[in-house]
Automatic annotation (TrEMBL):
The gene is DTYMK. Its EC number is 2.7.4.9. One of its GO terms (biological process) is dTDP biosynthetic process. SUPFAM superfamilies: P-loop containing nucleoside triphosphate hydrolases (SSF52540). It comes from Oryzias latipes (Japanese rice fish). Pfam families: Thymidylate_kin. Keywords: ATP-binding, Kinase, Nucleotide biosynthesis, Nucleotide-binding, Transferase. Gene3D superfamilies: P-loop containing nucleotide triphosphate hydrolases. Catalyzes the phosphorylation of thymidine monophosphate (dTMP) to thymidine diphosphate (dTDP), the immediate precursor for the DNA building block dTTP, with ATP as the preferred phosphoryl donor in the presence of Mg(2+). The lineage of its organism: Eukaryota, Metazoa, Chordata, Craniata, Vertebrata. Pathway: Pyrimidine metabolism; dTTP biosynthesis. It comes from the Eukaryota. The keyword Transport does not apply. This is Thymidylate kinase.
Length: 198
């Protein structure tokens, strides 16, 4: 008997919104409920492309902005075969950042349109659910280690937040917004189960 396809669940938000913590909690809760689940995150800094991105984000190297955007996209594409295989095996993937972050962050820079930023990711596996952790950049700036990486400034994060708000107007994507301040794993589980029953 063929197994049911796993779900692709993405968590998005500004830096320090709590995505990594919530991804871990969600994977644990799904596994506890008997559903095979694994976490992924982008950029995946373990690959050759990911290492280039990591050095850039950590301010150890400089790259032209178009190049950086395409590297982020290439980092997602190089993991598509793995993602598809796991989903087909019935494993639910909980992903910390995806193409929406790529579009939001690059289009927050001068001279980049959302339309151009989204094009390299056309054809990626479509998420079943995108949870957006709503947290003001001012609140995020109060969290530990804010400012360590290149894009962690309040001005830039405000611009990113505005781009996410534009992305969330796309009704073809199943967006759900959660309060990043008081969020716990239970809202994710409720939303996930409701969607999987439809």
């Amino acid at each position: 008997m063929a197994c049911q396809r796993g779900a692709l669940i993405v968590l998005e938000g500004v830096d320090r919104a709590g995505k990594t913590t919530q991804c871990k909690m969600l994977v644990q809760a799904l596994q506890k409920s008997g559903r095979p689940a694994e976490a992924m995150r982008f950029p995946d800094r373990t690959t050759t492309i990911g290492q280039l991105i990591s050095a850039y984000l950590e301010k150890k190297s400089e790259l032209e902005d178009h190049t950086v955007h395409l590297l982020f996209s290439a980092n997602r594409w190089e993991l598509v075969p793995t993602m598809k295989k796991k989903l087909e095996q019935g494993i639910t993937l909980v992903v910390d950042r995806y193409a929406f972050s790529g579009a939001a962050f690059t289009s927050a820079k001068p001279g980049f349109s959302l339309e151009w930023c989204m094009k390299p990711d056309v054809g990626l596996p479509k998420p079943d659910l995108v949870m957006f952790l709503q947290l003001s950049p001012a609140e995020a700036a109060l969290r530990g280690q804010f400012g360590v990486e290149r894009y962690e400034t309040r001005v830039f994060q405000n611009a990113v937040q505005q781009k996410f708000e534009l992305l969330m107007k796309d009704s073809s994507v199943n967006w759900q917004v959660q309060d990043g301040l008081g969020c716990r794993v239970s809202p994710f589980i409720v939303s996930f189960k409701a969607r999987r029953k439809n």
